[in-house]
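Hi P.,

Sorry for the delay on this. The queue was packed all week, but I finally got your sequence through. Input first:
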Amino acid sequence: MGRFIFKRLVQTAVILLLVSVVAFSLIQFIPGDPVYVMLGENIPKEYHDTVYRNMGLDQPLIQQYFRWLNNLLHGDMGYSYHFNQEVNALIASRLPVTLILGVLSALISIVFGILLGTITAVKRGTLTDNIITVLANIGLAVPSFWIAVLLVLIFSIRLRWLPSFGFTLPWVDFGKSVRQMILPVTCMSLGGVASYARQMRSSMLEVINQDYVRTARSKGLPEWKVLWRYAIKNSLIPILTMAGTTLRGCIGGSAIIETMFNIVGMGQIMVIAINFCDYQLLQSSLFFMAAITCLCNLLVDIAYAYADPRIRLE
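Then the structure:
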């Protein structure tokens, strides 16, 4: 098992190195003088030259890359000239917001998706199966931003039950935080619940007719024990793949929801960094989100190995 994890760690390190090259290279394709693009054309020439040198733009590209990578490895992500703040402090203040929303929505998606998928498989062909399957298809087809607009219209504007913007950390004001999280977490979870329900239904239908499941039933085991011990556990390998995708998608792809609900998280600052060409913030944010994605993939690979010993033996 240790050798398996070591191989995955080496692969992760190689991927992150390639991502750093891509993140640095993409910024170079933005046309124009980077400082003028970032700070505007009206800044004094002296200030332009100072910022230009501080960013290392007067050096060859290869030196700029290794300087940025060296600083990154030492925990220095640079300085955001748009926010007038160190990128480290900026990410540290915004990351908890995105993590809370992402982890909550991922957990809701996984738990309710597995539950609904199991129900539809067990009750295949019944009215319950048909209703849940139709709702899952609708959940997959409807874009999250449209759901956000609809929920805000109903629960914020018409009924005035929930706030339509902002985010408060739970340890600051728990009650207010819960009320502010309901709408964005719901928007981020609906598509995931639908995906998990469909995948779990498909996996369960394959497993539930296997010989070992019929043998367990023939031994007189209760149905819930047959489902949990033999059917559900053996249906979870595809779900593990989706779990990694969901978590990194909720954390890395939260820009739309954060913008819709005016939540100041990682997604929103990346949008701002793109709009204002904040190079240091954009490069470091891209690399940081890629690192989270690689971590999610690594955890999924390890979970594979524990769920199915054949994987680590290969």
